[in-house]
Amino acid sequence: MTRCGCWRSSTCWRPSRRWGLTRPIEEPPQPISAIIFDAGGVLIHPNLDWISARLAELGVERGRDALHLDYYRMIAQADREGFDRRGIALINVETRTWMLRYLLGEALPAEEIERVGPTIAELSVEQYPGEGALWYWAMPGRREQLLALRELGYELAVASNNDGSLEGQLETTGLIDLFEVRLDSGVEGVSKPNPELLLRAARALQIPPGRCLYVGDLDRVDGAAARGAGMAFALLDPVGRPRETRPITIAALDEIPGLFPLAKGADGLTCTPS
Questions:
Q1: CA neighbor of 140 nearest in space, from 255, 49, 71
Q2: Pairing assessment for the beta strands 34-37 and 155-160 based on DSSP bridges
Q3: CATH number for the domain including 253?
């Protein structure tokens, strides 16, 4: 990357021409002023309480917390396999059964997944039609974690690959008031791993990309976008599965301040393009 003359900051960098997966983090994290979050898998999830209840009705005990970890095992597998779900919409029984196979793949025997998966998928299509409808639920305590970060002085924003549902998702989960900047790829017309979505968030915050942290759950999409934008990146993964690029990994959002201290004084000044 090359030093950028469009920001009044010696720490601002232009995004790379290519956003790849091969560059590991080699330097200690720099102080940051803003945290930009992915939505799905970081702020919001499929309704794990609902999935747990449907499993119980079918004779399978799998609580919310266990399913929460199952979700991140599923994401780690997708990262390892280089799987790209873009173009596959979770809107029918077939695709949602496929997702449940991934979600429960390490938790249940294959024959048990085949027994319960199609039934839960069919019920989910009735209960949550449309892919965006799946993501109107947040883990308990998420709002409190975000409030704590904001009270420490971090600016908070969201930049999500979505289908135009982001505002409704954040409203329903009680998180919308915590973010002044909320970018939905379905509205913006650009999606990760293209770094432009994150760069737009930084411009809206009036904070240089080099003073922003992006938090995501999928390294091949979120991490690639952050690296391309010249931002720090933290992978949210409570199960701690390794990734090829060796990103900084956190198990919970409250680990962020210890790894990415708040920029103070002149280092934390916001700026606008000249």
A1: 49
A2: parallel
A3: 3.40.50.1000
Residues 155 and 123 in one domain: no
Tokens for 212, please give them.
């922003």
Domain-terminating residue out of 96, 112, 135:
135
Among residues 117, 135, 153, the one where a domain terminates is 135
Regarding whether 256 and 146 lie in a shared domain, the answer is yes
**Per-residue pLDDT tens digits for 201-255:** 999 999 999 999 999 999 999 999 999 999 999 999 999 999 988 999 999 999 9
Q: Is 177 exposed, middle or buried (0-12, 13-18, 19+ CB in 10 A)?
A: exposed
- Domain boundaries, position 212: 34-42+138-268
Report the SS3 class of residue 122.
helix
What dihedral angle (degrees, nearest 10) is formed by the CA atoms of 118, 123, 127, 129?
40
Give the sheet arrangement for strand 155-160, strand by strand.
181-184, 155-160, 34-37, 212-216, 232-236, 248-250
* Residue count of the chain: 274
Query: What is the tens place of the pLDDT at every residue in 56-99?
Result: 999 999 999 999 999 999 999 988 887 665 555 678 899 999 99
